[in-house]
């Protein structure tokens, strides 16, 4: 597989295998015919930008923007990873290059080529919308980016809703003003019911993941 053939589907599958600890970085690099440093780069971009970070993009950055971010980092208020996420920079290595050039007294120039990287802003949603979005995610390849684009919300929102759903079901997606009922307050029957619901959600996620992996295996077979 050449470097340019590393599709989004393959990258996200690698990320999930790494998150689930089913393969080591070395194994994943060997299976996908890339270097371990490439796998680490995918992980870094995913952790900084979510699934959007796995798409090939060439971003535009003004020299004023670069200077602002570098100076913000040097003040010590944010880590590199936090700044990459905050300003949606394409990767930590990009920021590191700006910092190196700045410290070497080299001019930070405008990035004149490429296209602007845009992300959908967060928006208010109803409980029914959040439930619909989570189920769409589970039924359409576990793709945060696709769900965010389809419903015009940010991928961070989709990610948070999915995690809440996996931990507490549809009830956890409510915009609660009060506190959640503590586990110690539940009756034995309620505790059993909650655990059964949690197991069902886990089974739902595993079924969706299994369907996605089968689809990915077919994609990889076609590319060989």
UniProtKB/TrEMBL annotation:
Domain of life: Bacteria
Insertion element IS150 protein InsJ-like helix-turn-helix domain ranges (all copies): 11-56, 65-116, 129-181
InterPro entries: Homeodomain-like_sf (IPR009057), InsJ-like_HTH (IPR055247), IS150/IS1296_orfA-like (IPR052057), Trp_repressor/repl_initiator (IPR010921), WH-like_DNA-bd_sf (IPR036388)
SUPFAM superfamilies cross-referenced by the UniProt entry: Homeodomain-like, TrpR-like
UniProt GO molecular function: sequence-specific DNA binding
Regions annotated as coiled coil: 189-219
Keywords: Coiled coil
Pfam family, one: HTH_28
Family stated for the protein in its record: Belongs to the IS150/IS1296 orfA family.
Protein name per its UniProtKB record: Helix-turn-helix domain-containing protein
